[in-house]
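Sample entry (210 residues):
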Amino acid sequence: MNLIPPSTKRSAGRPRAFDRNVALEIALDMFWRRGFEATSTTDLTAAMGISQPSLYAAFGSKEGLYREAVELYLLRYGTRVQQLIDTKGSAREAVAAILANAAHQYTDSSHAPGCMIASGALQVGPAHTDLLTQMVELRQAAQAAIKLRLDRAINEGELPKRTDTSSLAAYFAMVIQGMSVQAHDGATSVSLKRIAKLAMEVWPEANSSD
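Predicted structure, serialized as tokens:
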């Protein structure tokens, strides 16, 4: 989908007006596809059809624009893991649904491939380490949500008492992040769903010895 708004006629000498929401949509797509470092302010302003002073006036800085793009991403996609945890009956159903959802969402042609949070700001310069910290914290929060559901599964008798829920949650988080990279490299929904199904084979059986 082309997010760049069509040009409009304007009077000579008047500053070009732009839709801030459309500009944010463009920034989200570019940051999602390229990452923070690889997306320059020149790239952004060219895609938005505005000047750098206009970008700074609207968003403060490239970093400020990135943070707003992350907020928009989270608003649309960031709550899905918790929603599945809350709505699925068993922990196994919830984790399987999370992986299946990732396979579908990361390959959805209506937006950039992969996950902006899983792949976002993996490497940044010294001046932007706070962005890296934010992305790490968001990834850790998703992993922590899965761990809490696994802990509950032990108390409910769904998982053996000996289950290392920290490692199991980290494993599923690793699979999710790997699926994001695979999608970015062109993997299909079908291939990612196969990976998701294979990943579930490590699920500990409740009747195994504690």
